[in-house]
Amino acid sequence: MNSNVLAYSQPREASPLALNLRTFSEVNYGDDQSAFAGIVGQSSGLRNVLQLVETVAATNATVLLLGETGTGKELIARAIHERSPRRKQSFVTCNCAAIPSSLFECEIFGHERGAFTGAHVQRAGRLELADRGTLFLDEVGDLPLELQPKLLRLLQERTYERVGSARTRNVDVRLVAATNRSLEEMMSENQFRSDLYFRLSVFPIRVPPLRDRRQDIPLLVHHFTKKYSRQMGKQIDIVPDAILHELMSRYWPGNIRELQNVIERSVILTEGDVLRLEPGTLVPAIQESTPTTACGQKEEIEAVLRETRGRISGQDGAAVRLGLPASTLESRIRTLKINKHQFR
User: Fold this and answer.
1) Are residues 143 and 172 in the same domain?
2) Where are any strands of DSSP class E within 210-250?
3) How do strand 123-124 and strand 63-66 relate by DSSP bridges?
4) Global pTM value
């Protein structure tokens, strides 16, 4: 069998699953050179998102991508850039949750030499690097409250100053922001400025979770199996129906990123041409496919939140104690409808 083709054992009766697999090459939205690179699927939810991308890409409007962690918001942001007149310019990313608040202003706006201790050279910020292109602010809900007025000013006036400089600079940049948090809820708690929210949400796009686009799972399994088989020099030609149905039945709180990790592990463990799903590949902590399991996980998270007094992030936060990224824990808290503020 050709190593570039991934075949599947077929069910005895025709099904949408079999149809999806046969038409994979027609519904993968692109290869590495495509404006939709890496976006795989044919579900109505995904099609609706890409139609909105087509609509807004040609404009300079600010876009706010909403959705749970792991749903592919950065891929959508890149698609907006690649479909826009700015496609030949830079696409610069900044994860607001990964940068300490004390360094955030320097990362975005840059700094002058001598602006602070250790600033031995002048440095351009990510905003300057994205001039005439697109700046993608991921996890914008984690932007410190004291820095939000500076982002608001940028959106309103398209001007900024480097740290340590009084010179006002103009910038031509298209901003795409993303968050897995409820900015409306944060506004009600005075954690996010309402004026900034309204400037960011000129054109909101909600990216659906994987559980709402289950028909895309076989296509994603196909895509990731080919990808990791190629990287590891393996030839995996068959994905049994039992595995596909097992994967399609899962809740996937970590969404596409979680599925990707499961397939990568499975490819590593597979010997031969039939993909194997080893026991333990689907970690119990991320299985939420039944009400009983969800109830147990809710109790576990609430117990840890009670111990941390509702604190999510930081060394003493609930995320560390549960062994999860803070963004993943926030997503599960919303899914399980836990009121984290009652523990403060």
Assistant:
1) yes
2) 238-239
3) unpaired
4) 0.75
